[in-house]
Structure formats: structure tokens, C-alpha cells
Specification:
Chain A has 384 residues and is mostly beta strands. Chain A has four helices and 24 strands. In chain B, a hairpin with a 4-residue loop joins strand 29 and strand 30. Classes of the chains: A mainly beta (384), B mainly beta (913).
Amino acid sequence: MIIKRHIHRLIFLSCIVTILILAACKDSFEPNVTSFNSNLLVVEGLINAGSDSTKFKLSRTVVVAEKNVGNPETGATVAIESESNELLPLVELSSQKGTYASPGLNLNATKKYRLNIKTLNGSIYVSDYVEVKISPEIEQVGWDVKTDELQLFANTKDASNNTRYYRWEYEETWIFYSKFYSVLFWNGTALQSRTPDNYVYQCWGNEKSNKIILGSSAKLSADVIFKQPITNIPSNSEKLGERYSILVKQYALSKEAYEFWQNLKKNTESLGSIFDVQPSQLTGNIRNLNNANEPVIGYVSAGSVSTKRVYVNKADVPNFRVEPDRVCIEPLLVVEVSGSDYRTTFSGGFNVPIEEFGAGVYASSRACVDCTLRGTNKKPTFWQ
Amino acid sequence: MRSLFLAFIFFCVSIAYVSAQETKIDVNFTRTSATEVAKSLSIKTQLKFYYKTEVLDTIYITKKIDDQPFNLALKNIFEGTNIKYTIYKNAVYLTLGEPLGTAIAEEFYEDNKTVEDVASFITIVDDRKNLNATTPNKLYEIGIKSGRARDKITVDGYVREATTGNVIAGAKILSSNGNVSANSNQLGYYSIVLPAGKTNIIITAPGKDLTTRTLLVHSSGRLNFEVKERILTLKEINILANKASVVKSTEMGTNKIDLKALKKIPALFGEPDVLRAVLTLPGVQSVGEASTGFNVRGGSTDQNLILLNDATIYNPSHFFGFFSAFNPDLVKDVQLYKSTIPEKFGGRLSSVLEVNNREGNKDKLSGSAGIGIITSRVSLEGPIVKDKTSFIVGARGTYADWLLKLLPEEYENSAASFYDFNLGISHQFNKNNQLIINGYYSKDEFKLNSDTSYSYSNKNASIKWKHNFSEKLNMDVTLGTDLYNYDISSDVNPVNAYKLKFDIKQKNFKTDFVYGLNNTHTLKFGLSAINYNLSPGEFKPFGSESLVISDVVPDEQALESAIYLGDEIAINDKFSVNMGVRYSVYNYLGPQTVREYAPNLPINDDNVIGEKSFGKNKVVNTYHAPEFRLAARYLLANDFSIKASFNTLRQYIHLLSNTTAIAPTDIYKLSDPTIKPQQGNQLSLGLYKNLASQSVELSVEGYYKQLKDYLDYKSGASLVMNQHIETDVLGTRGKAYGIEFFVKKNAGKLTGWMSYAFSRTMLKMDDPLNDSPINDGEYYPANHDKPHSFNFTGNYAFKRRYSLSLNVTYSTGRPITLPIAKYVYGGSERVYYSDRNAYRIPDYFRTDIAFNIEGNHKINQTFHNSFTFGLYNITGRKNAYSTYFSNDNGVINGFKLSIFASIMPFVSYNIKF
């Protein structure tokens, strides 16, 4: 009897339990840190030993609160230097401030190279001499279809068991459409029919990787990378609406370079978990010759890049559904009554005509009509 | 006559033998004066003790009693001494030589004790320092001395109140040999027949002082007695905690929490928790809400020796630190030593946390069960052989997955569970020999939204023999084995599937002696040995397709032995010192291959000059040094003392962690030829004062502490599966200082404690061989450096069955490393971090409240139940657990993660049977 009463209480208890609202939460946090600009030099790039161009991007750090992150270091003298004192200059691109480039260098892979920078203010920075790491071919870029996402992966191997440390980047391209198919445009004075080269219904979106993707076979008996996750695409993404393509770029790293990238990843991508890894100092392989204590951000590697492109069609992911657009609902019918109605509607550029309908034209906001706001309507050269 | 005498005894002195008290007693006295024993028993049992200080003060008792019924405990405590006890109602009368009560009367008839003997015991009830100087000691002659002694002489007179002169009816007049007695009538008149010669008379009356007179009776005569109101005559002890001893002991910085106090602290998820209670004590910090371990006075988490029934617990937490490893239904008490570390303990720098479980009930089978919102627990105890052998078992388990579902969505695919078991068996061979066996097993498993599963486990077993050689010398011998292991496995990618294992095995032997040499000296000595066997890592393929190469970091072995001697010297009533020395010897043993590094060059792969191999059990290298444990106490007044202590400590096992909290993947490392033992020393000074008849205790303690050769890791070091970890760690120096204020109220409706501590902990990498020291080799605050902290833990019992508990915690936010610059790299914004720990997260503040309802106290019902419900974090403050910056689609954003960001209701239900 007593026990029965307890059981009743327990049931009551479990009711209380179910209505509990527990919230662990993540809020945005803007600490009041120093406004002092440390203005450190940031060096990013690869000494490309193959026939592709070599590009280095030099910039300066900004304070965290600063909106504009791009702070290019212009006017520097940059060169690749070999152990045997050959000097291969890079030239700052006029189109991209702070980017210094050279056409294919075709370096001797048995030699070591370093980067030499002389900034406008006269400081000289050099990297350590690094060996040339030739990336093996990417064996396969494949994907697994899961219920809620597409997981893209890469397989690779080095039969000579020599590479061991890898890094990947990727570039995605996909076809997408605007909500409305516009055959008209406002030429400034009147409505005019679009020609095929300025249709803005079909576009190609493009995105580059922004996470550091690293893999290592150092703990494996063979230099094999199997199903290295590259990226995941949610099942409702527009990317998989018709045809999608990914270009995976593979870099071979030295152990030190791998550690640098891993450290950078730990410090900037994987903090904040329950077992919070403390941020640690970032040590690259570049230093100021006159001031060894000045931190310089970046790691200079030399080597080659191997790439592989694959396509994923809608048919490959039959159960995926692109999330319907909730903004662009009904087009607006604009009728020329006063003689300046079209001008008033379209000259600002916010509204775009779609097609003629009866006495007027359908129109909608640019975002619903013009796909070039989010991509390009020029078919990329590689696109098949 | 005899029956009259008995009636007299019953009525006047109100002494009689009563049935056994229910209270269970745990005490551990080491050469404690009998008065102190009485005081401490009074505290524990809430009974009043009556005794004569002068008599009991000269008797010292060394006894350890575990969980015995009150009667048995009293018997054992006073066994072998001259002290007799008599229990009546809520009082215990301690006498020398003979007990009070009916038994006495009988003895008198049989043994015909002398008058003086009896007198001495009867006066014992009077505890005034100044005995009524004139009257009792004066010899009253009655009648005229004649040559012929007569057998029976009548003496009569009045009994009056001394100050008012009012006559007293119903006073008892008793010859101290108990042979004759009389009562005064309504007019205060009495008449008694006494033998001729010298007789001691005792006069008692309700509410009056007991008075004695010495008469020399020659012939009939009249004598009037005056008695005094009983005001402050009987010494009443009503201290409700252990703390008279805090003022008087030489120990500093010790805090004891008993189960009763523990259960009243509002607990997260409704489960009383030992570590959370410890965190309310001054000088104890943790890095955050969901963190394993605790930091004592600036020490790191691995610098605490955590003992559960003498077994070392390496990971004291379950479930990301939300629960501690100790089953609250079994815990008897918890003691934390943070400044004076007794010489019998060693091997850790900062503190000793001793958690003791109860022994099973030797009388009858009983048990308890508790149901909380994410855990349940059950325990059972009882006799195996009645009054000789008992057992106690406890188990806990979780059903916590629902909780993880409520965590931020990054953790939605997580799973976690834990369980633990305790077993205790105790066997009493006889009064001098007891054997205790303890076992503990715990296991945690979890998966944090990844394909990697983690599990860790503590396994401990120990056997202890307690032996009394004599009243003065006793011994504890303990033999035990402790295991801690974890493994991590991942099997989602068949090629990379692996299993990683780590374990520590340790075998311990220790023997501790206490020898009460004389009133001045109490010697404590003993020896201990710990054999470590550490498997720092085994990395193996998991599944047939896995290409993972097996990798094993070779096992490490070491022997840590120590011998100690301590002398507690009571120089005089006021001044006492404890002088202890512990000599520890550490041998790093083979089989082992160690690298030799070039002297005075950084320890890295480039500076290896050779390798040396050692065979099994060959000594690779040895560290040894004395450790000093000195403490002194001076009593400024009876309830006011000043104490100082100085301790040096050494630690041979290191925890390497690159996370702020202990993670289950952290690595332990034994000292070896390149990794030196950690050393610490601490100087403390404190003032201790008890108020309001000892029920309120106040203390202030200041300390300064230095740490040397504490291990930190190099930036970017990988600690797991590192074959040469010495190349990735750096010796760090630390200093910590602070002042702690503590108030505790032990009695009354409101009980609890309050503390404020100001403390700093700074670290410095000053190794000259390190080319890139953290913060350029300057001092930086440690992760757990929280300068201001305040805690209040209180319970208000407004009725016997209902009480309200409140817990308030405030502390400065812990230091963090924040980014000071940002840049673009690898396709995303990235941040550049400042000096380590240069900033702080927002301050921490939390208030919890709990309401406890005890079921009815009807003694004969099968089940007794209790309910606790409450609210955790009633202000709903979003306390930051951590802050971090991460890139979200290429843009850097700062985040603040709060673990319990809103009010957390909890409820738990406990049954006892």
C-alpha cells in the first residue's frame, strides 16, 4: 500500500520533470578588448613548384571591432629565393592590391625555397627554407547521400608513403534560378526585350571553402586517406536544385606546416566546446630579420596542387527538396496610365520588369528577378 | 532504608539507567583529554554531559569509533580508563572510578566503599571551578565529644535557601556512603540518624545546587543547611559542531562537512554532491560549472589528493563534472585539508580531500533510495553477523540523455551515462581488532556530437586492519589497489577507426601509528609505499578494415615511498605545536628506455645525445627529499586562538592538460630524469574565534604559497600518444596568496556558512631554455585565478520537518585569452590572441534555493521518505561558462556559452527503510 502511494508520487514527479525547461545557450559576446592595433604582417600563399602561377597575399591585422578586415600590404618587394641564391621576383597585381604573383615557376623539386619580403617601410621578412612537397593525385571525390545532407569526401593515396600530411580547399559552383523569368529590362527610357546574354533567370553560384580541412595518414600503415570529409550540403540547399560541381584542391604539407594549420584551426574554428582547448600561440615560419620577436602570421609552403572536379545532379539526390522561397510571392502588375508609371517604377533599379501582361507588365523586386545579385549568368568555362 | 536511598537517588540526582540511545557515533580521538571527548560527544549526540573538569582533564583518550550505537561507542571510548558513565534522559554523567546510579548503590552495599571515595564522585556533578569554599570544606562538629561513641545519633535542623533564607521542602539529605538519608518536610525541617564520627553529607534539592558538608558527630545536635539556587552550576555543553576543536587544534585550513550539512545544500538536479559542497568552502575554486575537479588555494586540479576510504580517485567526476564520484547516501563525512596537511599524507601539492563512507549498520538491515531528475541511487546496509560484521552497498545510475537534448544544438547527437558502485564490509574481531574492506567502481561513457566515444572508469579496492596494541598505541594498516583508465574509440570511418587506451594502476601499502607518549607528546608515525604502473597510451586499429598502425607509448613504473614522524606537543595549556617530517623517496623504474639530452640546451629532438635502457625494476633515477609539516597554535582565550603553519610538499605524478577543465583525455605523467617532481610550500597564518557558546565560529586565514616545476605545455603541443612528452612540456613556477574569511553557524534554526576569499594565482614560465615562453616569461594569471569569491550556504529549519536552503555564489570571472586582432587566412576571418589569460569572462553569480520536506517521523513505519525541490540559478543569470571566437561562414563572431542559462527546477525523492 505504501509502495503504491510512492509510485503515484513518482508519476507525479515525472510530470514535473517533463515540463522542465533547461536552456544552455550561446549568446553573442563582444568583449571590451584593446583598441591598440598590433598591425601584424600576415602572409598567405604557396610557392607553386609546378606550372601554375605562384601567388602570395600580404596584409596587416586589424582590431577585432573593425568592420573591414581587408588591409592589404601594398608596395612590398617580394621574391622567391632558392638555397642556391636564385631570386624569382613576384609582382604586385594591379587588380588585387597586396597580392604578389608570378607565372609558373617550374621549380626544381629537390631544392629548398623561401619567401623574401621587403615592405615599404624597409622591414625585411624571410620565411624558413621549405622543401617542395608534391601532392599526389586525388584518387576520388565522392559523396554519401544522407537523409538530411550530402556528405562530400575525398580519397587519396601516396604509393610511396611519402606525403602523410594533407590539406584541402574547394570551390563550389552550382546552377540556380531566380523566382521569376524576366524577358524585359528597363534601358533607362523604355522597356526592352532581353537578349540571351543578359537573361538573369539562370545563374551559377560560387563559393570557396572557408574552413581549414586537414588530414593525415601519419598513424596509418599506408599513406591512405579514406573518405576525408570535405563539406556537407544540407538537403534543402539551393546548391542541389539542379546541378552542382565541386573542385577539390589538394596540398601536400610538411609535418611543421600541418602543425601550423592544425594550430590555426584549433585556435579559430574549434573553440568553445565543453572541453575548451586553450588558445595557444601561433608560430609560423616567417620572421622579421631585424626583430625576431615580432610575430608574423603565416606559413610558407612549397609544392604543387592537385585538383579534381565532380558534378552532382538533382537526380543523384532524388529525395532532397530545395527550401521554397518565402519572399518572392506574387509579381506586381504595373500599368502605364500617366505615362511616367514605368519610369517611376523601374528607374530606381529596385523593381525589375518580368513580362508583358495585358495592358501592363509584371514586375518584382530585383532580388526575385535578377540572379546575378547572387551569382553570375555567364556559364563558367569549365562547366559541362 | 535501601529502598529509601534508591528513591532518593532517583528523585534528587535524577539519575537512572535508560535504554540505548539511537544515535550512531563516529569519532577519532588522538590523545584527546576526556573533557574534550565529552564536549565532542555532546556535540555529536546533542546530549548534555556532566562532569568535573579537573578530574577529566588529566585523562587522555585515543580511540577511533566508527558508526557505533551511542551506548556501545561510550563503552568503547571509556574502556580502559577509570571513567564511568551514566546516561539518564538527555544527559550523560561522567564519573571517575564508579558510575552513578542504582548500580552504585548496590556496589556500596557490597563493597562498602569508603566515605572519601563516594564523596569524590558525588561532587563530580558540581562543575564549578570554585567549589563553595567555606561550607563544604569546613568540618562541623555536632554535639559534645564524649568518651563513648554511640551508634546512632540524631541530627536535625532546617534546610534553607542561601540568599533568601526561605525554607526548602523536599530537600534530600544523604550520608555520602549512602547508608542513611532523610527528606525535609513542608517547613524545611529534617531529621537524620547518623553514625558517630566523621560523615559526609550531601544535600540536594530540586533546582538547587548540590551541596556537601562534612560533619563530625559526637552527640545529638542541630545543624541548618543552606543551599544555593542552581545557576550556571552544571556545565552545559551545547556546541553543535565540531568546532570547539577548530579553535583548539593545531591544524589550519581544515574544513569538515558532515552528511547532514551536505544534504541541506541546494543541489543541482536534486542530488547532494560532495564536490559542490567543497566548492562552497573558502579557498576552493573551479574553472566553471561543467568542470571536473577543483582548485585549492591556487593549485591545479591534479594537485589534490582525493581519497575515498583511503583509495586514490583520479577522476572524481561524472558526467562532465555535473556530479561527483561519491554516492551521497554512503558518505559519512568529507574533510578537506588545505593548509596544514598532516604528515601522513603526501604526493600532492595543494590539498587532501578525504571522503569517508559509513560502515554498514551492524544491528539491522536498512536501506535508502533516491530518485532525481537524471540520476537514481540506492543503498543497502545491514549485519552479516550481528554486532560483528556488516556490509554496505550503494549504486547509482543515470538516464540523462534528455538533458543533453536541451544543450545547444551542436550537442544534439550527444549521449552520456554513468554508474557507480560502492561496497564496504566491516568486521569487528574484538575490541582491539577490526577489518574493513572497501571497493569502488565507476564508469562513464559519453559521446559529444561526434563519431568519437569516450569512456573512463575508476576501480578501487582496499583492505584495512585497525589494531590497538594498547590504550596508548594503535595502528592502521591499509593495502589497496587503485585503477583509472579511459578509452576513446572511433569507428565511423573504417580506414581510420581506432581505439585509444590509457590507464594508471597503483598499488598502495601504508601503515599509520599513533602513540600517546604522555600528556605532552603524541607521536604519529608510519610508512607508505605506492607502486605506479602507468600505460600512457595504446593506439590500436579498430575493426578489420582499419589501416591504423598500432602505437604504444611504453609503460612507466615508479615506486614512491615515504616514512614520516610527527609529534604533537602540548607545551602548555595555551601553546601547542605539531612538528612533522615526511621523507619521500621516488624511484623511476625500468623497464624503460630514456633519452639523454645535452645539458643546458632546450629539451628537444635535436639535442638528444643518447639513449639508455634499463631492465625490469632497475632504478632509472631517484628523487628524494624531506617534507616539513609544522603547525603551532596559541590560545589567546578559551575560545580564541592564533595559528601558524608551514608545509612543504612534493608531487611525483603530473597531469598534462591543454584544456581549461580536466578532460577525460588528459594524460598523467610520472616524473622521470627530465621531468622533475613538482614542489610546493605554503605559509599560513590564521585567527579562530568561537562565539555564542561555541555555536558560531569565525576564522580568518591568510596564506602565501609557492609552486615549482609545475608542468605546462608548449603551444601547439600534442599530448596524446606523445613518445617524448618531455620535449613538449615546460616547467612553470607559480605563486598564490590570499586571505579567507569564514563564518559558520552550527546551531539554532539557521545553520550554514559564509565565506569570502581574496586570492590570486599567478604562473610564470621562467625556464631559461624555453625560447618562446608564454607571456614573455612574465607572470600571468592561472585559469582558476578568481580574485574575489563569496559563498553563502544556509539552511533555515522553520519546523522540524520543513526547511529552506539557500546558496549564493559570486566570483570574479575566470581569466581568458581574447583575440586582439583579426585577419583573413584560409578563406576566412581569423583572430590573433593576446597574452595568455589577459582578460576575464563576466563575473559569476548564482543563487539556488531548495525546500526540504521530511516525511513524518513515526518510528514504526516501514518507509521514511523525504522530498527536496528547488530552483537552481533562481535569478536566471546567464553565467558564462566560456567565451570563444569562431568563424561562421568566413566571419568572426564572439560567443558566450552558458551552461545553465535559465532557472533550473529540480526535485528529488528519497526513501529510507
